[in-house]
Every structure is written in C-alpha cells, then in structure tokens.
Write a structure and sequence with these properties.
alpha+beta; 8 strands
C-alpha cells in the first residue's frame, strides 16, 4: 500500500513540474512593471523579459542582458544567444562568439535537414 501511494505522489509531482514548465507566468521587474510569458527573468539592469512560447527559455548573460529562445548559451563575451526555433541549435565558436541556427546542425555545423 505504501509503495503505490509513493508512486502516485511521485507521478503527481512530475506532472505538476511538467505543467509548470509550460505554463505562462507574470513577474514584476526592477522598475515595477509586470511582464508575462514563459521562463521569465529579470536581467542585470532590472528589465523583465519573457519568452513568447512555451518550451522556450530566457537566460541572463555575464553582460547583464537577457535573451529568450531555444538552446540558449552564454558566449565568451558574456552575451546570451538563443535559437529562434526549437529545431535550432547554438554553439560557441573558437573565437568565443555564440552563434545560433534555426535548423538542426551536427557538431560541425552541417545542417541535418534533408539528410538521409
């Protein structure tokens, strides 16, 4: 009886976490302004930013600015870059700059669409 209760509790918790990740939210930024969307953050300048689509994320870079999108990375210069589609990808090049594509690529930057 205890194991089944634990299983139900665990599954319920996982369902709540999953729905929370895709639920919109509103936050107040450092200037008293409310912003609403998904994965909202307040950047280093007090500005609130939110992604427009569920599944996207917002991330603050070392320069204090935030960016929202998919597969975000902070590059060697403290800038955050994000792909604008879930199929995209972001990498940091040898020069330290972040780059994103809107289509999936392999680790060498070759597009994966249209390949067998």
């Amino acid at each position: 009886m205890r194991i089944s209760h634990l299983l139900v509790t665990t599954l319920t918790s996982l369902a709540l976490l999953s729905s929370a990740a895709t639920a919109s939210e509103c936050i107040n930024d450092g200037h008293g302004k409310a912003v609403c969307g998904f994965g909202c953050v307040v950047d280093g300048y007090g500005d609130g930013v939110c992604a427009r689509e569920a599944g996207a994320q917002c991330k603050v870079g070392g320069n204090g600015r935030a960016a929202c999108g998919y597969h975000c990375v902070v590059d060697g210069y403290g800038q955050t870059v994000c792909a604008n589609t879930p199929d995209g990808s972001c990498t940091i090049g040898g020069d330290g700059h972040g780059r994103c594509t809107s289509i999936p690529v392999d680790p060498y930057g070759t597009p994966l669409r249209g390949r067998p």
